[in-house]
Amino acid sequence: MTVAVHVGPEPVPALIDAVRRAGGDVVPLERAEAIVYYGSDDPAELRAMLHDRIRWVQLPHAGVERWADAGVFTAADPGSAPGSAGPVFTAAAGSYGAPVAEHALALMLAAARGLHRLARATEWGPNRSRELAGSTVAIVGCGGIGRALIRMLEPFGCTIVAVTDSGAAPGATTVLPRARYRDALPEADYVVIAAPATPETRGMFGAKELGLMRTDAWLVNVARGGLVVTGDLVEALRAGRIGGAALDVTDPEPLPAGHPLWQMDNVLITPHSANPRPAYWRGLAERVTANVRRFEEGAPLEGVISSTQGF
Amino acid sequence: MTVAVHVGPEPVPALIDAVRRAGGDVVPLERAEAIVYYGSDDPAELRAMLHDRIRWVQLPHAGVERWADAGVFTAADPGSAPGSAGPVFTAAAGSYGAPVAEHALALMLAAARGLHRLARATEWGPNRSRELAGSTVAIVGCGGIGRALIRMLEPFGCTIVAVTDSGAAPGATTVLPRARYRDALPEADYVVIAAPATPETRGMFGAKELGLMRTDAWLVNVARGGLVVTGDLVEALRAGRIGGAALDVTDPEPLPAGHPLWQMDNVLITPHSANPRPAYWRGLAERVTANVRRFEEGAPLEGVISSTQGF
């Protein structure tokens, strides 16, 4: 069965190719039964595109909290018939595991080797390097990113505490359910946040959790800024309650110029660049092709968003 | 057979323990048949310690070019009898492979992810990240460091060109003899220098070799500063003939304040800190214990320095 897919509102050539590679028809919106969405990311834009015959929407990011917060996954479209189940939504979650894990490893190694500090130096100094090897790493939210990170850490003989409700984290030393994530903090040299942004994860790292960490431990966030209470983080860094923070995501984001985090010696900020643009397009195109094939075959789609969990 | 070892001129407790752990006797210099040297690293200091009954000297570093250049390994001690073979010298080479390889990986990932640039930023910017995964990595001088680096690169699916005359580089895509190292340069995204400093390797990266590299490739030096012609490197960086340089070692070293390399956007300098101090002491103590045992058993020592090759 061929599926009629609209790619839009931006007609991105790489995504049109990805649909066609799977044998899908690329059609105008009014004739579509599926949407590969790429646009402003304003939930209202997508909502206005949904019509009764749309059975599936592919979103272009791993994190979909902006659509979840706007109720796109739960509220029936105002124009839909009573009792309509609405379309299935899929995210790109899982397709960016390896590139984002690579960034997390880069940040951990930079922290261990003091690269944040040395990059700013203008003269020679003492050897204050630490080894990543042998460290204890807590991975909070251990999905596709976390699993890829565990593979990358294998040569370093780290003790790895994976926090996930899926129960599956091959290679982890210990697996904890999310409700017990605080138990992973006191022993960790590195706390890597890789959990989805949902109402339940918002602010899961505040003063209390930062206070449980070691004073030489680094917080590494490659998930979403809102999982960390920024004011509490600034306070913990100022007071020396943790060793440092490497943040690919911030709250607010972009982090405004002049924010105290920009000034701190033990902070390294990257501008939501954990997923390099070429890896982003490759991962998204692969996900689109795989899901068009699965839709045609009636197979379960990859990255289906739970309307109750929001990821 | 128990070996009588002098630890000095600095009586370092960790090294005394390492000798005793292997069953060796720690004795004053005049009664010693072996020296575990730790001191100023001035070759004259060691030369003054050598006497007729010294059969083995353990040096405290992986690179031993300062003693080689001073002729310590080749010239007979002025006081020794004619025809005396002189002691066997061993280096710590190979005992620091993993920690130094970890530093090389940290530098490569920093280059890929732009951490040298982002650490200096004081405001948000665009995503200019690259992936390390899938890159081509040339490892010039593939001994203990290079072999450890190949293991660490395994999850990244890199094409690895190992330059070594040993012929053994498990996991490398291609192995080239040192005489052909220039052939590895045109394809490499990262050129990692991990060769010993000898008269043959001095200046092996000058204008010609830098000119063979890609304009987006990074030079990563975790070996010795003298393997790179600093003036040529500065010129190549200024002219955009290579992408950047991550240098743990420099020539001169320490790199003086005000040197042009400190000012460059695409340069990351670490202060000869590839081997963290705890790893240094652990590796050296392990090497001392292993070699005292081997000496007692009449087995071949680890890290024997060739008087002709100087490493």
Automatic annotation (TrEMBL), chains A, B:
It comes from the Bacteria. Residues 105-274 form the D-isomer specific 2-hydroxyacid dehydrogenase NAD-binding domain. Pfam families: 2-Hacid_dh_C. GO terms for molecular function: NAD binding; oxidoreductase activity, acting on the CH-OH group of donors, NAD or NADP as acceptor. Keywords: NAD, Oxidoreductase. InterPro entries: D-isomer_DH_CS, D-isomer_DH_NAD-bd, NAD(P)-bd_dom_sf. The keyword NAD applies. PANTHER family: 2-HACID_DH_C DOMAIN-CONTAINING PROTEIN, D-ISOMER SPECIFIC 2-HYDROXYACID DEHYDROGENASE NAD-BINDING DOMAIN-CONTAINING PROTEIN. This is Hydroxyacid dehydrogenase. It comes from Nonomuraea zeae. The lineage of its organism: Bacteria, Bacillati, Actinomycetota, Actinomycetes, Streptosporangiales.
